[in-house]
Design a protein that fits this description.
This protein has 3 helices and no strands. The longest helix is centred in the first third of the chain and has 31 residues. The termini are close together. The chain is mainly alpha-helical. The mean pLDDT is 87. This is G-protein coupled receptors family 1 profile domain-containing protein. Keywords: Membrane, Transmembrane, Transmembrane helix. It is found in: Membrane.
Length: 74
């Protein structure tokens, strides 16, 4: 099977750049959410647990799945 770079090199580079930028933004945003959940005791109960779990799950996606997607395209 041919990779995206074999079909169109410029499109492959653009794809990798977009996924990289989105991964960096996702890691920064979800880390900020986890930081705020740790430092601010105002959010309590189930809302705090839900937001923390969603941010942690999204960190796993942006830290594991997106780099593997980039490697798969190369």
């Amino acid at each position: 099977m041919r990779s995206l770079f074999d079909i169109n090199y410029n499109l492959g580079v653009i794809y990798v750049l977009i996924i990289t930028l989105l991964s960096i933004a996702g890691i920064a945003g979800n880390s900020a959410i986890l930081y705020v959940m740790k430092k601010e005791p105002q959010v309590k109960g189930h809302a705090r647990l839900l937001m923390s779990n969603m941010a942690l799950a999204d960190l796993c996606v942006t830290g594991i799945a997106n780099p593997m997607c980039i490697i798969g395209k190369c």
